[in-house]
Amino acid sequence: MKDRFRTVWVSDLHLGSHGCRAEVLSRWLKRIECDHLYLVGDIIDMWRLRSRWYWPAEHNRVVRRLLKLAHRGTEIVYIPGNHDDAARQFAGMDFGGIRIELTAMHETADGRSLLVTHGDQYDLVIRHSPMLSRIGGMGYEGLLRANRLWNRGRAAFGLPYHSLSRSIKLKVKQACTFISRFEENVAREAQRAGFDGVVCGHIHKADARRLAEDAGGESDPGNEDRSPSQGVEYFNCGDWVESCTALVEHDCGRLEVIEAIEWLDGRESDDLASELDELEAWPEIPMPLPLPVPRSFREVRLG
Ligand SMILES: [Mn+2]
Asked: Which of 44, 96, 130, 190 would bridge with 195, disulfide CB 3.0–4.6 Å?
């Protein structure tokens, strides 16, 4: 049984990198069908591929599943992100039923207009310092590892623990304010452009919520026609490196974040149960010959 959605958005697959959870992704793609599918950037990690080629069979399987969906009538739009920015030069072109666009406008079943964009344009770190952001891509884990190594080294020389954690904490705090600023930025830009909401990726943090009207700060005098209570909807489809999340639209127009691992757990165990039911429904086949039966089995049969 496949689950049907009106629309599916996925982003930050990072195919071509070791981090990509391609196996979960292809299992999930196998079990869905949808009218529209948006690939919201960082689909292929060209930064990684440029330094070292990595493309296991599982990553091909994902591509094949996508092409199969396109073949079966799903309209697929691919919006490149910063890790696959080389694909941006092909905007407006179509590859095997997958259309490349810089951004897209999606209208939900109940008539809301959503801007679909990867979102790196609204990320000030990436815009002003791509090198720094690449180093930052090592992430929090790398920082913690560095801290451990640093202190192991210090301990070896009899030096007291000197915490990098101060700077780490600062970095994490900066990351948090960075994330909330990113969310604000991208949502406000969409609102200013006249959309009811935005769907983006980039920060690997799935979300579906409404941001209240801008509280003071950057009020936009040119935007007085909007009612102040309306706010703007912010959706993020997360990633397939850690969380394995997707954003879906149901036929009624309701949007929801799906956690694929949990989702698959339910579906696959249901399937297994129904397969077992089928097996049990088979007529009992009498043993053709008096074969030696193990004792334990005999006991079960007699009992
Ligand atoms: Mn990105």
From this structure: 190
Give 116 Cα–ligand 1 centroid separation in angstroms: 14
pLDDT tens string 184-234 = 999 999 999 999 999 999 999 999 999 987 644 444 444 444 444 578 999
For residue 61, give every residue at least 6 positions away whose Cβ sits within 8 Å of its Cβ, in sequence order, or none: 22, 26
CATH topology of domain 3-122+196-278: Purple Acid Phosphatase; chain A, domain 2 (3.60.21)
What is the residue-averaged pLDDT of the chain? 83
Q: 197 alpha carbon to ligand 1 midpoint, in Å?
A: 19
> Distance (Å, rounded) from C-alpha 78 to C-alpha 102?
8
Measured in Å, residue 129 CA sits from the centre of ligand 1 at 14
| Centre of ligand 1 from the C-alpha of residue 53, in Å | 20
pLDDT of residue 168: 62
**What is the whole-number distance in angstroms between the Cα of residue 289 and the centre of ligand 1?**
65
Q: How is residue 223 annotated by DSSP?
A: G
The domain spans of the chain are 3-122+196-278
Q: 169 alpha carbon to ligand 1 midpoint, in Å?
A: 23
Residues with Cβ within 8 Å of 22's Cβ and at least 6 positions away in sequence, in order, are 13, 15, 56, 58, 59, 61, 62, 240
Residues 224-263 pLDDT 10s: 444 445 789 999 999 999 899 999 999 999 999 999 999 9
50: CB partners within 8 A, 6+ apart: none
* Separation of CA 85 and ligand 1 centre (Å): 9
pTM, two decimals, is 0.75
How much distance in Å is there from the Cα of 45 to the middle of ligand 1?
Answer: 9
Calculate how far, in angstroms, residue 4's C-alpha sits from the geometric centre of ligand 1: 28
